[in-house]
Sequence to fold (157 residues):
Amino acid sequence: MASHGKEGKRDFRLEVADHLIQQIEQGTARWQKPWKAGEVLAPANAVTGKPYRGVNQESLMMFSPDASDPRWCTYKQAQEKGWQVRKGEHGTLIEKWMDYEHKLTADEKAQSKAAREQIPDPERRQKAIDAASQESEAGASSPQKPTRCTASAEATA
Fold:
């Protein structure tokens, strides 16, 4: 199962689907594992403490190298805290939807007002993040494990 799209770039959604299919086939998908109530923790940013949500929450729980540590951060955040991602470790893709950032020219503004055009659709951006368990010094100085995951968890990220 290839996780690369037409242009050879990593395809986030294809990676999630491929990994999920592999886990189902092996009988190791997170909902298939026996666990005790309260042991499953929602993935959260190790620096801000902000929980991830939506497809990011699902994919981070699925790709987590250590299910007992749900903390994640960007490489830049790890560097700023003095943490180092271990050699050979790779980030996990997440996606963030952002408002379109095209600055309109005076002509475009005039045309837009005249035509009463709608605001452009938001754009999707992807970035790689690393699990705290992939970092050599993230343990002591990062926040404690975040909120517990519940069926209705709609955390913000």
Q: What stands out?
A: Residues 12-134 form one domain.
